[in-house]
Amino acid sequence: MIRISDYFKWYCYFHDSENFIDRLKRVFKREFISKLERERGCHPERRLPFNPEKMSGFAKHENRYFINLFRQNPRMLFNRRFVAMDHVDVVLTTRCTLSCRDCSHLIPEYGAGGRTPLDIPAEQVIKDLRHLTAAVDYIASIVVMGGEPFLHKELPAVLEYASKNKKIGNIQIVSNGTIIPKKSLLDSIRNSNAQLHINDYGFLFNADIYEKLAAANIKYRVAHDRVWKVFGKTALRQIAEDALEKKAEDCHFATCKNLMDGRLAGCAVSQHGERTGLIPRFEGDRIDIHSFSADELRREIVKLYRKPYYECCRYCGYGGVSETVEAGIQNA
């Protein structure tokens, strides 16, 4: 049986191969929608039926928006020139209310060694999203995050723009649940039709947020994370090419491109590892999006997705059978 992760590779990213249409027709035989609904989502480790009540995580929302898109315009399925991105993390700030020792995005490193945490102005974030969506046909899901995004005073402006951009399907906000948003921010979240994803590590969470979200009619879901896989131990590793490809294929971040201050990176580790100096700068691992016209950027994005792995994979601590740690352990 074909895996949906293979479908996304063929369709969203390898769409310009010469034999793409014949290959896709041969596999799906006009059964794309039913197969997509039966399968498990774009992340390799998820094997859940396509049931809105059972499927969890970002895959539920990404798939739902792709399905709706293709139902509205079935011809798009066989358009080799269509370029879609399933998941883009949009970083607003590297400030955070926590300092998690094993943060997969390496956020505590921004405050270490005399570095100053960053706030990306809403004007810049909107400029980045405008240029990115000018280059592609669709982004199934953007995930607004930090750090802790509720620390960014201009979050409402970003949400308003994203909600009006017809090339953006789903808007999610990732929070650690330690800040209860003010009414004005709750109104902005509701009006933008964004969904709040709350990470509950057990001992740091502010449970009062549930009441506030319910009263404001905010869509939200809670991930009760108790164990993390280790992404953040960055050191050069001697890894064979085939092992690097397998490592990238199994990675949870494989489809999660990361947008921050004009730079689209292959993953969060690449983005934050380079910015904090923990990983060298690799030209092929990221795109300075404003260095290209929309048409040029479109081609660069396809190249980025085509890579079997990124050079930062040699430094990342994650593997197919990765070490696990207790979630949310704080730095001293």
Outline the biggest β-sheet: 9 strands, mixed
Structural class determined from secondary elements? alpha/beta
The number of helical runs is: 11
* Total count of domains: 2
Measured as a percent range, the helix fraction is 25-40%
Uncertain parts = 1-21, 23-62
What integer value in Å does the Rg equal?
Answer: 19 Å
H/E element string? Answer: HHHHEEHEHEHEHEEHEEHEHE
DSSP summary, beta strand count = 11
Task: Output mean pLDDT.
Answer: 78
Distance between the termini: 48 Å
CATH class of the largest domain: Alpha Beta
CATH superfamily of the largest domain: Aldolase class I
**CATH fold topology of the largest domain:** TIM Barrel
What's the architecture of the largest domain in CATH terms? Alpha-Beta Barrel
Beta-strand content: 5-15%
Shape, principal axes of CA atoms: globular
Describe the structure.
The chain is α/β, with parallel strands linked by helices and 332 residues long. It has two domains: 4-78, no CATH class; 84-326, TIM Barrel (Alpha-Beta Barrel), CATH 3.20.20. Helices cover 34% and strands 14% of the residues. It has eleven helices and eleven strands. The chain has helices at 4-13, 20-28, 32-38, 57-72, 122-135, 155-164, 183-191, 209-215, 241-250, 268-275, 294-306; strands at residues 84-85, 88-91, 138-145, 168-175, 195-199, 219-223, 227-229, 257-260, 263-265, 286-288, 324-326. The strands form two sheets. Strands 1, 2, 3, 4, 5, 6, 8, 9 and 10 form a nine-stranded mixed beta sheet that branches. It has a two-stranded antiparallel ribbon with strand order 7-11. Strand 5, helix 8 (209-215) and strand 6 (219-223) form a beta-alpha-beta unit. The model is unreliable at 1-21 and 23-62 (pLDDT under 50).
